[in-house]
């Protein structure tokens, strides 16, 4: 049984209370439960990690790359939060490890402030899910599962 890493970046620990008009009322615990419930019928486990620190996210991607090469992990669902728009280091970690990453955004970042229109991660991502609320995590997991079946 291979696993899926669900990686959440800065401020996503505030889901449910941070700008609910944009991000909704679901908490990070709700998102994690959704991810577990989505992966389980496909025979996959889920590990969830949230960090407000870029280095911890990079370390998690490095470990995910090792696990992917070992056949233990099918990929990563990654909501990098604000780091999406600024972190070349996260882009390099995704590209350098070769692990399939699905970039997720709860809101439609292209309909928000102009600085959110650019993603440093998209060129390295295997896919992108934008604007479906927390259901985007479910869509990302389904995409990773389909991708792994076709590999």
TrEMBL record:
GO terms, molecular function: 3-dehydroquinate dehydratase activity
Chemical reaction(s) catalysed: 3-dehydroquinate = 3-dehydroshikimate + H2O
Active-site annotation: 23 (proton acceptor), 105 (proton donor)
InterPro entries xref list: DHquinase_II, DHquinase_II_CS, DHquinase_II_sf
Gene Ontology process terms (BP): amino acid biosynthetic process; aromatic amino acid family biosynthetic process; chorismate biosynthetic process; quinate catabolic process
Record flagged with keyword Membrane: no
Annotated family: Belongs to the type-II 3-dehydroquinase family.
Protein name (record): 3-dehydroquinate dehydratase
Organism of derivation: Aquabacterium commune
């Amino acid at each position: 049984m291979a696993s899926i890493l669900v990686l959440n970046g800065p401020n996503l620990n505030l889901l449910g209370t941070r700008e609910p008009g944009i991000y909704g009322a679901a908490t990070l615990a709700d998102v994690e439960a959704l991810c577990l419930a989505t992966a389980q019928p496909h025979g996959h486990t889920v590990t969830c990690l949230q960090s407000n620190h870029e280095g911890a996210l990079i370390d998690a991607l490095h470990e995910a790359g090792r696990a992917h090469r070992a056949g233990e992990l099918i990929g990563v669902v990654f909501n990098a939060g604000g780091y999406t728009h600024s972190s070349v280091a996260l882009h390099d970690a995704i590209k350098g490890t070769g692990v399939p990453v699905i970039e997720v955004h709860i809101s439609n970042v292209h309909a928000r402030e102009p600085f959110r229109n650019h993603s440093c991660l998209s060129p390295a991502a295997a896919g992108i899910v934008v604007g479906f609320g927390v259901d985007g995590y479910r869509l990302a997991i389904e995409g990773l599962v389909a991708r792994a079946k076709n590999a």
